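Dear support,

Our group has been running a series of protein-ligand predictions, and this particular one with heme C is the one our PI (initials K.S.) wants archived with full inputs and outputs. We had some confusion internally about which version of the output was final, so please treat the block below as the authoritative record. The input we submitted was:
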Amino acid sequence: MWDTDRLHIKILKKEMLLYKKIFFSAFIGTLITMSACIKSNQPTGAGSDFCDTTDVTFSKNVLPILQSYCYACHSDKNVAFSSGISLDGYNNTKGWADAGYLIGDVRHDAGFLGMPYGKPKLSACEINTIVAWVNQGEQP
Ligand code: HEC
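Confirmed final output from the archive:
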């Protein structure tokens, strides 16, 4: 009687240990999956929420945005639709920035046309990049 009880307890303990092991590995598994998810959400540059606006320059940071969203209407070769408004190159873009239109337009501020014209706003990071470029003194 006593012996079978002990045996029973032993088996129970073994089962508990097994459950603990299963639970523990499931827990670790969840942790690993979670950390993998967190990692994949981490800053990777373009396309993520992360936005690096340190040392913004025209050629490195602003030009690619203009090429993607603005030169369809504002490159020297392509200004018919915008009645000759060119953002081609550093000087032209600086001109419109200094005149106060560039930031207002890309931010869709009240009283501005809102650019890109007739299209959705740029991403927050793209807008922040342009604003940072102007605020940091329009580095070429
Ligand atoms: C689909 C064509 C189109 C695209 C793309 C476009 N624009 Fe424009 N843009 C226009 C037109 C049209 C005007 C107004 C021209 C006028 O006043 O006669 C204009 C005017 C401007 C002006 C002059 C100031 C003003 O508000 O009138 C700036 C600066 C400007 N756009 C910036 C941009 C920037 C920056 C982008 C890209 C993020 C962009 N545009 C994309 C068509 C476009």
